[in-house]
Design goal:
Shape: globular
Number of strands: 11
Distance between the termini: 34 Å
Length: 109
């Protein structure tokens, strides 16, 4: 199971840190991704991190978001800075064919 948390309401320009906790060994050796889905839109990849720590980001969040992982704690994080209204969405973590339940981020302009 994956459990995402950390969403909330924030003003534009603010920051949030999302967390994804894994039970068992879901993250072990696997790439982990954060995705987001705004109402009426498709679910898009935001950031991914490989087991070795290499990362990749959607162009829209480069320079503002940082994905990281703690393989000992089975946690993956998404630090989101300089948030914009268009970042508002439900954010999901994903690994090894397992989706977390989503955490809602709302950015007020």
């Amino acid at each position: 199971q994956l459990q995402a948390s950390g969403g909330g309401l924030v003003q534009a320009g603010g920051s949030l840190r999302l967390s994804c906790a894994a039970s068992g060994a879901i993250f072990s050796g696997n790439t982990v991704g954060w995705y987001r889905q705004a109402p009426g839109k498709q679910r898009d990849l935001v950031a991914v991190i490989a087991n070795g720590g290499s990362t990749n980001y959607a162009d829209s969040v480069k320079g503002r978001f940082t994905i990281s992982r703690d393989n000992v704690k089975n946690m993956v994080y998404l630090q989101m800075n300089s948030l914009k209204a268009e970042d508002s969405a439900a954010y999901y973590c994903y690994s090894a064919s397992v989706w977390g339940q989503g955490t809602l981020v709302t950015v007020s302009s």
